């Protein structure tokens, strides 16, 4: 606006002045610089332009966005995937859960991003300090960039594996064979800004997707677990059942609910279903 004002004022109001040309050139330089910055911003963010537009629109309305930042393990044995029951919602999903906010991260989130807790989730026991927070939309992109850099936050993925399969929610695998796990980071799935039932607010969900790489002994134990069959806590599901979120086309029955994010993780992309 300032650059355009210089151009208009110089062209129309300074006719005949010795400084007219200088004022107009100054405005043109400012406008060209602005366009270069805008183009650079678009090039850098070309893969998330839609997200940027969504966030900027919400920032104009001074809204907050709920962020839920998680990681999920793809554990596959004989073309079936290990799922565990979500204790809050009752559906089945890949092993994993939300990152934790470390003690040193709390003040940074508040001071740099104006974060506040998600008050609809309990902050105690295994859910204490989960990475489910509200961020003003004006700080949303800055927050995402900070989080994805992986500095000053939890980056180890052992905790949820241990809690869900070894000691915590269940004791299904042995400490002897699972003192650690190896895995590949397959990528990251980030949803667009959307509204989720029960929260009635803009929300972005993000999942780091990990592929478990069991050694020989670990694979044997996982195979033995699979051969024991499904239980109330764990299920083994093939790709087709997960893509249908628990509806078995072969028997034409809904066997159980599977969380949408399990399907997103396997497909490495978000979908409305």
Can you walk me through this structure?
This protein has 273 residues and is an alpha+beta fold. It contains 9 helices and 12 strands. A hairpin with a 6-residue loop joins strand 8 and strand 9 (202-212). The chain is elongated.
Please provide a brief summary of the model.
With 273 residues, this protein is of the alpha+beta class. The chain has helices at 2-13, 20-44, 49-60, 103-113, 140-149, 158-166, 216-227, 239-243, 260-267, and strands spanning 64-74, 76-77, 80-85, 92-98, 116-117, 132-136, 183-190, 194-195, 202-212, 234-237, 247-248, 253-254. The relative contact order is 0.16.
Q: Please state roughly what percent of the residues sit in beta strands, choosing from under 5%, 5-15%, 15-25%, 25-35%, 35-45% or over 45%.
A: 15-25%
Helix content: 25-40%
What string gives the helices and strands in order? Answer: HHHEEEEHEEHHEEEHEHEEH
Instruction: Please tally the helical runs, counting DSSP H or I stretches of 4 or more residues.
Output: 9
Rg for CA atoms: 25 Å
Overall pLDDT, averaged? Answer: 88
Oligomer: single chain
Secondary structure category? alpha+beta
The span between the termini is 43 Å
In terms of topology, how is this protein built?
Elements: H1 2-13, H2 20-44, H3 49-60, E1 64-74, E2 76-77, E3 80-85, E4 92-98, H4 103-113, E5 116-117, E6 132-136, H5 140-149, H6 158-166, E7 183-190, E8 194-195, E9 202-212, H7 216-227, E10 234-237, H8 239-243, E11 247-248, E12 253-254, H9 260-267
Parallel strand pairs: 1-9
Antiparallel strand pairs: 1-4, 1-6, 2-3, 3-4, 3-10, 5-6, 7-9, 8-9, 11-12
